[in-house]
Amino acid sequence: MDAQASPTLPALTETEPGKTVLGLSPSGLTSVFKSIRRRSEALCAPLSVEDYVVQSMPDVSPSKWHLAHTTWFFETFVLQGADGDGRVHHPMYGHLFNSYYNTVGKMHPRPLRGLLSRPSVREVYAYRAEIDQRIGELLLSTDAEAFKRIERLIEIGLHHEQQHQELILTDIKHVLSCNPLRPAYRATNRGNRNATAKSAWVEFAEAIAWIGTSGEEFTYDNERPRHKIFHNAFQIATREVTAGEYIEFIEDGGYRRPELWLSDGWNTIGGLGWNAPMYWSKRNGCWFMFTLSGEAEVNNADPVCHISHYEADAYARWAGARLPTEAEWEIAAHDHDVENSGTIEGNFVEDGLFHPCAPLEPLPTNALSQMYGGVWEWTGSPYTPYPGYAAPEGALGEYNGKFMSNQMVLRGGSCVTPRSHIRRTYRNFFPPDARWQFSGLRLARDVPAN
Amino acid sequence: MDAQASPTLPALTETEPGKTVLGLSPSGLTSVFKSIRRRSEALCAPLSVEDYVVQSMPDVSPSKWHLAHTTWFFETFVLQGADGDGRVHHPMYGHLFNSYYNTVGKMHPRPLRGLLSRPSVREVYAYRAEIDQRIGELLLSTDAEAFKRIERLIEIGLHHEQQHQELILTDIKHVLSCNPLRPAYRATNRGNRNATAKSAWVEFAEAIAWIGTSGEEFTYDNERPRHKIFHNAFQIATREVTAGEYIEFIEDGGYRRPELWLSDGWNTIGGLGWNAPMYWSKRNGCWFMFTLSGEAEVNNADPVCHISHYEADAYARWAGARLPTEAEWEIAAHDHDVENSGTIEGNFVEDGLFHPCAPLEPLPTNALSQMYGGVWEWTGSPYTPYPGYAAPEGALGEYNGKFMSNQMVLRGGSCVTPRSHIRRTYRNFFPPDARWQFSGLRLARDVPAN
Amino acid sequence: MDAQASPTLPALTETEPGKTVLGLSPSGLTSVFKSIRRRSEALCAPLSVEDYVVQSMPDVSPSKWHLAHTTWFFETFVLQGADGDGRVHHPMYGHLFNSYYNTVGKMHPRPLRGLLSRPSVREVYAYRAEIDQRIGELLLSTDAEAFKRIERLIEIGLHHEQQHQELILTDIKHVLSCNPLRPAYRATNRGNRNATAKSAWVEFAEAIAWIGTSGEEFTYDNERPRHKIFHNAFQIATREVTAGEYIEFIEDGGYRRPELWLSDGWNTIGGLGWNAPMYWSKRNGCWFMFTLSGEAEVNNADPVCHISHYEADAYARWAGARLPTEAEWEIAAHDHDVENSGTIEGNFVEDGLFHPCAPLEPLPTNALSQMYGGVWEWTGSPYTPYPGYAAPEGALGEYNGKFMSNQMVLRGGSCVTPRSHIRRTYRNFFPPDARWQFSGLRLARDVPAN
Amino acid sequence: MDAQASPTLPALTETEPGKTVLGLSPSGLTSVFKSIRRRSEALCAPLSVEDYVVQSMPDVSPSKWHLAHTTWFFETFVLQGADGDGRVHHPMYGHLFNSYYNTVGKMHPRPLRGLLSRPSVREVYAYRAEIDQRIGELLLSTDAEAFKRIERLIEIGLHHEQQHQELILTDIKHVLSCNPLRPAYRATNRGNRNATAKSAWVEFAEAIAWIGTSGEEFTYDNERPRHKIFHNAFQIATREVTAGEYIEFIEDGGYRRPELWLSDGWNTIGGLGWNAPMYWSKRNGCWFMFTLSGEAEVNNADPVCHISHYEADAYARWAGARLPTEAEWEIAAHDHDVENSGTIEGNFVEDGLFHPCAPLEPLPTNALSQMYGGVWEWTGSPYTPYPGYAAPEGALGEYNGKFMSNQMVLRGGSCVTPRSHIRRTYRNFFPPDARWQFSGLRLARDVPAN
């Protein structure tokens, strides 16, 4: 077990994506490219060949599919693009590994991804190797003008790759959880991570604030344009809600009291029989959970995880609070970042815990903490376009814009997000009943009247 | 047919609800109460006994159920309340006619409302008569202090009644449309309502604006509190999109071009095979629609109707525009109201058209029109609580708050809304795939850069 | 209640169908025709207008539909036939009231019959009156040769009408049972019907026997041709299994022991949560059932009723016996009929009990009883064509033949079957999970080895 | 391709199961046991590791599951039985690999078999090796009395193994067919197998016949007891219906003519959109089919295959004939066997064609041929117990008896059945809509009247 305790993800090079990937030399970009691509494979290293194949529900994709789809992304948008070499690795891969880009062509139906035993895992790795090779050749052989265009495509492709790195882990967790054998993805060493801290409120006065970004750095289109919003005074909690606090909610009849729930939430928990977070079960009066390291006892000090928006919302109502809006979250994060000199710290995939563990040391009691990593924090904001938003032209315009309905925004990244992938303005989004992601919450509230 | 052409809905008394229902004398309030209650029955006058029974889909309720449910509302919240007479008309009616108030008790499942042949239509009318009688007695016999409490319950009950008056019509339209005999609810005389006008843009500059209400007048809780928002400059169309314009969208392949659609919308139209608004069909190159007056040819100058949020959104994208936010709509409506001295004009249920007909005279080309009545206008705003919103205590807290997820806001009322029911701050809401309501759209857009 | 206690179904004339309907004079046939048609309406007399409309599950049809469909049958096969008057009552009724005759044309989908508030009950009765009038005119005006052809169509139409008389009752029972008000179809007086008798075995030796019919009398095509079968020696029970005996099975864990069940049966009871006959519920240790006379305590001496084939089969296995084959049943019925001089006696719809009540006097202990009426008896025989069977030419060939898969044969008629409708060779059939019919069982077994 | 053309299934030893497996010496039985067990693995040799995992529909099981389940069968019924060693290979395997033996304990739900990436293929093979080893040790170490009991369990286990050998092939065919890459299980060499022969009728006179078996040889319980039946005179076709003949049925509108179909069949083909056998598709006017050797043109002389009972029944009706009853088939097979000295010949799995190919030489025109192998022949007989049938005591009583509802009998074996597995009295059974097995038909008819 010790042997596996320290994950050995390949380190990223100094130059991380999202910050300096543009303007690198061809060989510098190739190096970043290969480093990130290698990590996807490193995350799959603990898997058996059989693990790569299974799709345990329509939301989940087989690991093999993730590896191939991210490769198809580079093949399609870089190599098949105006500046690419135009060669086709396999005539059917476009059909099999297109996720949702209708502009590019028809695709294999998502719920049937688990029916595909072929191409084999080995063939998928060969596909990756070939595309990586051709990308490398393209970067080194292209002229400066084309390079300018290509580096932007590489950049989004690498961020896309990182998103799927997270999904590889959330999806294989679901796959393994469906198996009565309860196999672990890999052993981890959580150490003495049980430090607790009282939660407190940090207050922000009514103001007009700038949200989103208009800068040069990489962001997704949905974080733009930077725009002004007006907000009332509000308070936001210094830390995330813990598993122990959530157990109090459960034991107070939280799942049986309709007045705490949105109507859709009440119908969801009734219809699906939910009475605790996903992966939790109670045996002999004790709560257990399935983790990427196998079955484990719930640790009270950890942030609560694998809850839907409905559960986060009901918990907040029970606690006499509410979820923050995404603007409130971003405003708070701005202050937090200033205090931390812009360093993004937290429990990320590189930490190799694969679980939102409590910290080793107690958190500060008067300052915001756990803003990044650990769990994605549900906000009370539906996922809508920012004022002035316009989706890019072409197929990549399908990346974000078309999903702006029936989803809620989450912020801050999780314990399976790559650290270099996250930023203050980052908007993640899932339907309100989704809970196979590492999703939790932080409380907010209006400033009480005196 | 002529005989039926002019609907003879009972006129409301001078004092309309939402404005002056509070502060009336007991007999004055009784008079308003009876007037509004009578209208529900008047709207059912064209129905056969059999028509009252059918539930054509889970969203639809039988007419009989609407008549009984609104009565149960008064019985439960007024007569069973602290100041009521406490008598129970029938021990099972609470179970049968509770819609969704979990706080009050368990209820008959919504999708099974159409299985109830009993109580009979006659019994439901007797139930109404008894409750109306007892409400009248209560109003006239209670002391002043209790009257103050009761009049607030009567007020919300009457607005609730009006909402169901609209649903009686939208629901029976759906019921009748499912019948291959295509029966009409009643004949109407649309006259020469084909006037058209070019659509133009009205512009509003960037500003901080107040939205919602904090006044004394009646509103639902979801319109409160009044609060500030910041908005960019925007333009909004002078009138609603017409059926003729929508046909252009259809003929331009609107339903076959994925790039125009939200992802959920594209899946919805594909899964359900939609290729036109609800109730529309094409025969021999001509578009027909089912109306409350039976089958009719689509009239190009009418506002397009019975479209989902997805279709409204796709149309707007096709037209190079977008849906207004609900704040934008309300800001525009404010200016419109000022110009019109606060008078709410439009095609309402009292006009007896039961269809969003084009006007008799051309609309003004430089001023906002059709803001009220005709069709509910889809906005681009998800239905969320206003900053500082808190649901009321008790069962009536379930009225609005718990539905604030997965729904989109619509504004302005429709041709089957009672005129006295609507106001500028009124927020209607439906899931984005709903289209059996009289729902259409008005375009908006960002101010183009020069 | 007394007033309703004796049902007043119109008596049939002396000449009953199935025996002498052929060869009657035109006025004699008209008289029988009108008598049977009137009875369908008499059975609907206790219904409210609303009751006629509801379809509580796809298997159930609204009463209104039954009345119209049987009328359509005469209109289509007699009046629209070669010898009919050819007039069409309403151009859409063929679409609305065709049940399953693909040869005749397309039809309204069965599960949507409950969406049709129109035609009204009044219009359906008018339809019946007109068709009856025209049939009467046709019978009296046609020439002798055509009369020969027409009387055969009238004959099958009357048997068809009688089948729907039974369905009117089984279907309205289901409709009313879905209503939490638990309304009764009509009060009945069961008197002191609690007589019991020990069940005994009647034995039949191995033999070749003739099954089915080839005679001149009316039968459905599925009872033909008469043919030989070989059977082993067997024993059959003198009477039907009682509710009290069935309760022993329940209390012995019958619904929880997989070894007693066919695999499909086990999956059915698990999936649907069955643990007692349909319409049964247990309160305070006592079994109650919903009947056409409302809620009542289960009477132990009554034949058990509203069980599926799966439950009948499991009960028989639990009892160390099996279901009889349909041939065994018919062989036993032959002996029974000989002893009873061919008189068909039992609890039929004319008795007005509408429930399989125990008899007033104890049954004979050494002779077969309860062979007719009471409950349809499930046999162990799948519904297949007799050797040499051929469906008739034309649309009426769809009457029986096409249903010969996935159904099991039941024999003997029930308490809601018209007495003149039943005969020894009559083959009823339902899928093995159906139980809204009045269906029960009688045991059989192989002759034990000595 | 040539290299793969000749399948190299391990030959069975001289002593085949079903004939002489009882009475062998311990080492002789061990040898047969290992030989049959090895063949299951040999059939999986062409599979990739990924192929073993996928479940493409609930009826299909992953190859890995088949290999483990058959092993569990021996572990449970032999090693865990009274005479076994009682050791448990893995505490969860009983849960994972029990198919449907409720008596033995709860089991993993069938539709979720494809979610199990673990145990790995390697672990399943290790499981097989260990159980085989322990069975071998048991056979060689047990005393004579226990050996007598054990050999009977081994015998049924081996027949069970052979059934799953067939399912391994039918299931992997379905899995591979779902993959747009259309991978082949293995290349085969069909040679010049296009010989045709005119179909003729062989007539059998009315008689009493003995059906089933009461002998000492191995059979399943459902083939017993031997019993007498009476049958009319009938005719049966000399050979199976060919693909070419079936194409005539299609081209004559067979799938569009309701009068040809059982009602359930008509609903099935309508609901599922069937218009040809499974695996068939038409391109440029030519019929293609997916086979275990990949996509191929339909060969007119081959027996038609992968049709449901409904399609077989409709074809027969179109051809003016019917399906034989299972008794008729067995009577015909008896004569055929006498003429062939009891030798069972046909296209079996050992032939390595994996498809019901036409023969190399024309078939005899006056004698029955193709009775065994090629395709399972649908009969017109529902699967019911033979008179006097009793399921065995204990868990093995669940093997056959509980499936005797809603299924139809098929006879004769197919091109993926092991030759030593089939016999004249063998009763296979599937629901009437199943068609992923190699199922076809042979015609029968009543003797035409002169």
Count of separate DSSP helical elements of chain A: 10
Most extensive interface: A-B, 37 and 37 residues
The coarse silhouette of chain A is: globular
For the largest sheet of chain A, list the strands in their spatial order. 10-9-8-11
Helix coverage percent of chain A: 25-40%
Uncertain stretches of chain A: 1-7, 12-18
CATH topology group of the largest domain in chain A: paralog of FGE (formylglycine-generating enzyme)
Ends of chain A: how far apart?
A: 56 Å
Count the E strands of chain A: 12
Structural class of chain A: alpha+beta
CATH architecture of the largest domain in chain A: Alpha-Beta Complex
Tell me the series of helices and strands of chain A, N- to C-terminal: HHHHHHEEEEHHEEEHHEEEEE
Percent of residues of chain A in beta strands?
5-15%
- Mean pLDDT of chain A, nearest integer? 94
CATH superfamily of the largest domain in chain A: paralog of FGE (formylglycine-generating enzyme)
Reported for the largest beta sheet of chain A, the result is: 4 strands, mixed
Q: What assembly state would you assign to the polypeptide chains in this entry?
A: homotetramer
The CATH class of the largest domain in chain A is Alpha Beta
